[in-house]
Here is the input.
Amino acid sequence: MRPFGFDNSYARELPGFYVAWQPAPVPAPALLYFNDALADELGLDAALLRGAEGAAFFAGNTLPDDARPIAQVYAGHQFGGFSPQLGDGRALLIGERLDREGRRRDIAFKGSGRTPFSRSGDGKAAVGPMLREVLIGEAMHALGIPTTRALAVAATGEQVYREQPLPGAVLTRVAASHLRVGTFQYFASKGELDKLRQLADYTINRHDPALAGTPGRYLGLLRAVAERQAGLIAMWMNVGFIHGVMNTDNMTISGETIDYGPCAFMEAYDPAAVFSSIDHGGRYAYAQQPHVARWNLARLAETLLPLMVATDDEAAVQAAVAQVTAVIDAFPGLYAAALLRGQRAKLGLGVALTSATAADDAEDNALAADWLSLLHAQAVDFTLAWRRLADAAEGKGAPLRALFAETEALRAAAAEPTALDAWLARWQARCARDAAAGGPGAQARAAGMRRVSPWIIPRNHRVEEALAAATAGDLAPFQRLLAALLRPWDEAPELAAYAEPAPAAITAGYQTFCGT
Ligand code: AMP
Ligand code: MG
Here is the structure.
């Protein structure tokens, strides 16, 4: 197949970090999904790729001449236990492409057959989970959250065997890179220092080129990853996203969200929310995510330490340990600052975003925390609550009150102000102070809030409904849902069905699955 304009820097510069491998041929390629906007970003020929040639490529049957498919090796802590070798068990990096803005993007297959890293797995993927990755990833992208993205999903025409036979598919994933914390762990745990240094320098050239060649570059890399992850996790938290499997092999160096397996969006606010069928201890529950990120960063720090000190000199080792510890210890502060920035935007506090004092920080942190406690106490839908708060900023309080039905009933009976009233009074006073300091008027405030708190998120029941239909051969519900997810901010009446929470019974029993 004619060349795609691929580069292959990973394959070229990092021999010994992968195995050259070919996708398994499949019987009947058919394109189920193609991302025109992303193809355009990548400068790819969309017209060509939408046709039969595209289907053959996206199913892994015919590769462009400049593809150099490889299975990358990595390790990882899974649920806290270390696996010294994981690697691409059902994925292949096909090539890289410089997009229209000059950014290097990996183009990779998922579900393209067994590799030397498959262990007991079949190397395959089913249509449902691959389209799920499209839906959640594109929703995240529309929400402005850094993420790997789906370029295409091709049906293979063969069955994969899970609990029952399912139609098979290959996903084509685009990522800033597939470098993970686990990639560093693989070489660190084997004590291969030269390779580790090569990996770190490759990573720095790719993601933090300003650090290249500087004496403090490995510490700088750790700091940069910590900053990206702090920003990323804060964004997850502010839309109610639960990743579900934050193993170190699923945490990127680039700061993109990766691996949409057992993830889900929270409905009723609950810090302990967990949907993954295998997360029995709640290790990756909603509120655990910033703590897990820090834990994962500490694992990355351990891999970088030997690069920072070339000698056995005890004092030098201690100094390096102190430096990386300072970065890890700074993570909660970075995260808290990023979270508060996002929460302020959601609370409509425009001026506070740019010129807050320490006292403002304390006040606004308490304001946000108390709001979330109110949602938790009454199991209020997280997404709708923020959205209806924007209405309240314009003086329309009834829709918000309707979400707090229980205390509203009490209020009517006892004719007494509720906890919600007390909180709203504090918030309104804070907004008034923000306005007096140059902040927006009521309508502009509400509009600003609606630009950061979505109306549409991938509701679990809608996702499942769309995937069940797609698995049975009907793509229409998937396409309609995707179209809605691409417009998360505007309250378009025709999208109302996608904004409604799932019936409580569905959410209570909802489970998501890994590696499917
Ligand atoms: P994940 O849970 O998707 O992050 O995957 C963890 C590890 O299991 C990675 O090394 C994957 O490549 C591997 N894996 C997941 N599913 C399969 C499969 N069906 N066949 C082979 N390897 C798999
Ligand atoms: Mg993974």
